[in-house]
Amino acid sequence: MSDLFSTMEQHASYGVGRQMGEQLASNSFEGIDIPAVQAGLADAFAGKESAVSMEELQVAFTEISRRLQEAQEAAAEAAAAEGDTFLAENAKRDGITITESGLQYEVLVQGDGETPTYDSTVRTHYHGTFISGDVFDSSVARGQPAEFPVSGVIAGWTEALQLMPVGTKLKLYVPHHLAYGERGAGASIPPYSALVFEVELLEII
């Protein structure tokens, strides 16, 4: 039992607050005032009249929403510019092939098996990183190859897989418009992210 909270009711109450706090932390804004949050929660629970008028609340919500939107747009522009700079420099390296779409790749291992088509399903091993080198996903790390239709992945992968005979391993440098674009992918991949993958085609299923 906790030294701070001794009863079952206190534990459950703390758990409710903890869950609310985690949700708030994942969708917060700069300058949030936790004592004010606590006061609002207490007043609402007690059925008290709001200490801030509805008009003032609406003005505040609108302004905070505007600030968040501006911050997101600035972050997206910075990510797009960083990706473009990286790809422009990467394109100058020996061994880099650039396709018409803007996909860049280098051959790590050249296979000699059958080449998949748009309608194929394949088994691969892959290792995905941001241009910083930070890993966001890796079947290699999990020790479990991934299976999927060639048509069911990001555009950069769909294009690359149709260039890969079985046994080939490529390193892909994928511009954001061939990856997850302006939307990103949940919390794991921000909008406008250029991505790097090592992809090994193991088998056409």
TrEMBL record:
Pfam families: FKBP_C, FKBP_N
One MF annotation (Gene Ontology) recorded for this entry: peptidyl-prolyl cis-trans isomerase activity
Enzyme Commission number(s) from the entry: 5.2.1.8
Keyword Coiled coil found: yes
Recorded catalytic activity of this chain's protein: [protein]-peptidylproline (omega=180) = [protein]-peptidylproline (omega=0)
Database matches in Gene3D superfamilies: 3.10.50.40, Peptidyl-prolyl cis-trans isomerase, FKBP-type, N-terminal domain
Highest taxon listed in the record's lineage: Bacteria
Key words of the record: Coiled coil, Isomerase, Rotamase
Residue ranges annotated for the PPIase FKBP-type domain, each copy included: 119-205
Residues making up the signal peptide according to the UniProt record: none
GO biological process, one term: protein folding
InterPro entries: PPIase_dom_sf, PPIase_FKBP_dom, PPIase_FKBP_N, PPIase_FKBP_N_sf
Keyword hit for Coiled coil: yes
Coiled coil: 54-81
SUPFAM superfamilies the record matches: FKBP-like
Family: Belongs to the FKBP-type PPIase family.
PANTHER family: FKBP-TYPE 22 KDA PEPTIDYL-PROLYL CIS-TRANS ISOMERASE, FKBP-TYPE PEPTIDYL-PROLYL CIS-TRANS ISOMERASE FKPA
Official protein name in the record: Peptidyl-prolyl cis-trans isomerase
Lineage, highest ranks first: Bacteria, Pseudomonadati, Pseudomonadota, Gammaproteobacteria, Alteromonadales
